[in-house]
Amino acid sequence: MKEKRSLLWFKNELRLLDNEILFRASAKASFVLPVYIIDPAQFQPGKLGFPKTGYFRTQFLLESLTALKSSLQKLNADLHVFVGRAEDIIPQLVKELKITAVYASQEVGSEELATQYAIELQLEKFGVPIELYWQNTLYHADDIPWPINRLPDTFTNFRKEIEQESSVRKIFSIAEIAYQQEIESTNIPTIQDFGFTPALKDNRCAIEFRGGEQNAQERLQEYFWEKDLLRTYKETRNELLGSDYSSKFSAWLALGCISPRTIYNEVKRYEQERVKNDSTYWLIFELLWRDYFRFAAKKFGVKIFQRKGIRNKAFVSTNDAVLFEKWRLGEIGVDFIDANMRELLHTGFMSNRGRQNVASYLAKDYKVNWTWGAAWFESQLVDYDVSSNWLNWAYVAGVGNDPREDRYFNTESQIRKYDPKGKYVRHWLADNIDVSKNTHESKVIS
Ligand SMILES: Cc1cc2nc3c(=O)[nH]c(=O)nc-3n(C[C@H](O)[C@H](O)[C@H](O)COP(=O)(O)OP(=O)(O)OC[C@H]3O[C@@H](n4cnc5c(N)ncnc54)[C@H](O)[C@@H]3O)c2cc1C
């Protein structure tokens, strides 16, 4: 039988547990080469002046890659990290190493798809297929009860039908990888290579996000089992301060250090061993929102990035760079909005309640182009996820999947409800921190 030599292209599934591409490649190939590619274009400043991927997400990515490399090394394999364009590097590796199949996850983002198509085109010349697997949602794309172009327009309809019609698939695990050292081991770039100065931890942060599968598992262990916080999640999830009010799984989910199915299984175990209540259900409910946006991104493609949104609805706004800059740096003079924006600026994280309020303020009070706000979140959020970010923004701006036409977050009433004693605002505004820290010199890594 012909030897199967596979290239395993890691992207946003930086884990060993429940990784279908790893499972499939390991089952079929006599040689598996795990690869990750850092594209410098993803770290360059865009037209608004800040990098597409900012400090916090870059740092989290590097930690996650380091962790994955070390886990693979424990299985006598390795992770080969290259810097460049995937559409150059993958065909080159395929040719040099006589690879016979490339394994990768299916994408929904238009940039990611463009890269994938470019690679497919090149690999056709060598007769090498890309085997694509759907990963990183709770429900598999093949199990949703509609063709993608018939995905319901509202989350409620999506949720009700999927809960009735579909079930969550089993997870994958592997015991070994067929790997031989055929090329030299590579180093993972440092944060300085991206032009960032390492920032000191800001002690006011909600949680210290550290990348990698082990850290994701530890957070799950802490949130569910040690602190027993899952039983009250529904009541606390809209709070603003500290590590305990919500799971903080988002950054690990975004890079795939943990899969939503692993979290789901653990919720089910918790329901059996501790308690089953509205809160345990609600965490799954939120994971369904994440699924919904991922499927909606698949359905609507490039429209999710457009100012008129997926509804092609006129969004009257200005491109007021001065207002935007004040908003971005947390200097508009409305304490609640500024406090949230400072949290994002200094830590790369913001609560869901905060995100809704600051997004609404930019889009609905300031009437500034919401896509600029989404671009800043893309740069700054440690948990940036293409579909969750752009479709949440579109939703709040009134051009997304919101069945309500007139949703508006009134800052005054939000403060009365969520920060009545000003604790959150004081936490972030009682400081003299220089907001220009974490600057980026726009260095090109090579
Ligand atoms: C304007 C705006 C932008 C956002 N951008 C992102 C983003 O880039 N990446 C991201 O992961 N989330 C994004 N969210 C959704 C949400 O704010 C975060 O997922 C959540 O705050 C992360 O904290 P957590 O993990 O503690 O959430 P928890 O409350 O513990 O929720 C558990 C998980 O459910 C998912 N989830 C919860 N709420 C949502 C939601 N509204 N949409 C999609 N998934 C959700 C997340 O994966 C989250 O980790 C955005 C929301 C808004 C309003």
CATH superfamily of the domain at 5-135: HUPs
The CATH class designation of the domain at 5-135 is Alpha Beta
Question: What's the helix count?
Answer: 17
Q: Percent of residues in beta strands?
A: 5-15%
> Ligands bound here?
flavin-adenine dinucleotide
Q: Which geometry do the CA atoms define?
A: globular
What would the average pLDDT be, to the nearest integer?
93
Report how far the terminal alpha carbons are from each other: 40 Å
The sequence of SSEs as H and E is EHEHEHEHEHHHHHHHHHHHHH
- Stretches where pLDDT is under 50 for at least 5 consecutive residues are 432-442
Q: Can you name the CATH architecture of the domain at 5-135?
A: 3-Layer(aba) Sandwich
Query: What is the rounded Rg?
Result: 22 Å
CATH T-level topology of the domain at 5-135: Rossmann fold
Number of strands: 5
The biggest beta sheet is recorded as: 5 strands, parallel
Query: Within the largest sheet, what's the order of strands?
Result: 3-2-1-4-5
- Which secondary-structure class do the elements indicate? alpha/beta
Function: May have a photoreceptor function.
Pfam families: DNA_photolyase (PF00875), FAD_binding_7 (PF03441)
Domain Photolyase/cryptochrome alpha/beta: 4-138
Family: Belongs to the DNA photolyase class-1 family.
